[in-house]
Amino acid sequence: MITCDVSIARSFLDDETYIKSRGRADFGYQQLVTKKGPGSEWLGWRDLLAKPNDAILQQIEEIAATIRKEADIFIVCGIGGSYLGAKAVIDALSPHFQNNGPEIIYSGHHIGGKYLEDLIAYIKAPKADGSAKSIYLNVISKSGSTLETALSFRAIRETMEGLYGEEANNRIICTTSQEGGILNQLIEKKGYKKFIIPGDIGGRFSVLTPVGLLPIAVAGINIQTLFYGAVSAYRKFDEDAEEVLEYTALRNALHEHGKTIDVISCFEPELKSFGGWIQQLMGESEGKEGKGIFPSVAAFSTDLHSLGQFIQQGRRSLLETFIVVDKPFSNISVTEMEGDDDSLNYLAGKTFHEINTKARIGTTQAHQEGDVPIITLTIDALNEENIGELIYFYELATGVFVYSLGVNPFNQPGVEDYKKAMYRLLGKK
Ligand code: PA5
């Protein structure tokens, strides 16, 4: 379950500002649900939850089960919306320092040559017992032509063909559009397995399609529970969207007030990648026409030792969104030590969750006193269902907020500019 507490942020606003922004939030919501706003042909991420397709979930689970049984390494090759959602969920719900199934490695999300070279060397190197590693690759690209992903895919499939010959084709799964694009031509030529990204869902809204769900299932996470968590959020907010509207109204009012940066902060390191997914979802959706709040990501308390000074006393252009997990998911506590040579016995018996909670409350008080408006989103526990709910909350809140600014949330015309300049310099025909 999610709760959204806007009381601190609200205390920074007078009634008149808030009421006007609430009107804009209501307008944004209407644009979205009545499909009357610009970009309404991209609302398939809602339809997906309105009419769940269990057959697809099952198909994904079946392929994932085979990969989990056979693979040592599963490479997820994609950029932006084609990998951030999967990474967010996998990092949130997987154990640290051990693989619950194949090792998951990301590629195709930059053009770093050393990374790719090291990755190729790593997959070619035999296991400790001398046998070859079993590699599976999921290339994910809606357009089928994104340079970062295509370059990495070329190098890895060549390596896999060198390792396995023709059998490499059975180890490559492509997630792309129904038709068009170079990837579809390769699928036809090589006979790769294929999952379809629905045409009415943009990359950053695609985590609950095969784009995100296949890697998530390969990581051993229950995609049924995750997906139906999002479905239950869809039904809840369809009946009563008050929490989303309040959140939107607050952000809209803070945007009007000159807040230009939203520091999306978690207190659990597991959720940092989830912040990265939110960052892309919001950044690519709202940053247009000279509008929007720049989404930045922080993991506390780590980043209190790097960004904390600025947040507390730097230029007052920030708001913060805290993503909080209420119930502990670890019971580790501080031990009592004889002699107390490090003077920590005053904390003996306390769990790390209790200490972390005090750190969060202390941070909230300090930052509020430092004039930073704070919105707090709390999930009661870190599990599939709540992460599913949180995904839909953010998708909906992003769509509504961006419409409240009078902008189309679902395109990204600015991203094309760097591509055009880069391709010109590279001499692409
Ligand atoms: O959200 C988006 O639409 C983008 O971030 C895309 O996901 C990203 O650019 C990758 O595009 P593609 O899946 O076509 O390779």
What order do the strands of the largest sheet run in, or round the barrel if closed? 1-10-9-7-8
Low-confidence segments, ≥5 residues, pLDDT <50?
none
Give a count of the beta strands, DSSP E runs of length 2 or more: 10
Q: Counting H and I runs of at least 4 residues, what is the number of helices?
A: 16
Description:
With 429 residues, the chain is of the alpha/beta class. The protein folds into 2 domains: 2-39 and 229-410, Glucose-6-phosphate isomerase like protein, domain 1 (Rossmann fold, 3-Layer(aba) Sandwich), CATH 3.40.50; 47-225, Rossmann fold (3-Layer(aba) Sandwich), CATH 3.40.50.10490. The protein is built from 16 helices and 10 strands. The strands form 2 sheets. A 5-stranded mixed sheet has the order 1-10-9-7-8, sandwiched between helices. Strands 3-2-4-5-6 form a 5-stranded parallel sheet, with helices on both faces. The longest helix has 21 residues, at 384-404. It is globular, with a radius of gyration of 23 Å. The model has no long low-confidence stretch (mean pLDDT 96). The chain binds 5-phosphoarabinonic acid (PA5). Residues 79-82, 141-143, 146, 149, 202-204, 284, 412 line the site of 5-phosphoarabinonic acid (PA5).
Key words describing this protein structure:
binds 5-phosphoarabinonic acid, 2 domains, Rossmann fold, five-stranded parallel sheet, single chain, 429 residues, alpha/beta, globular
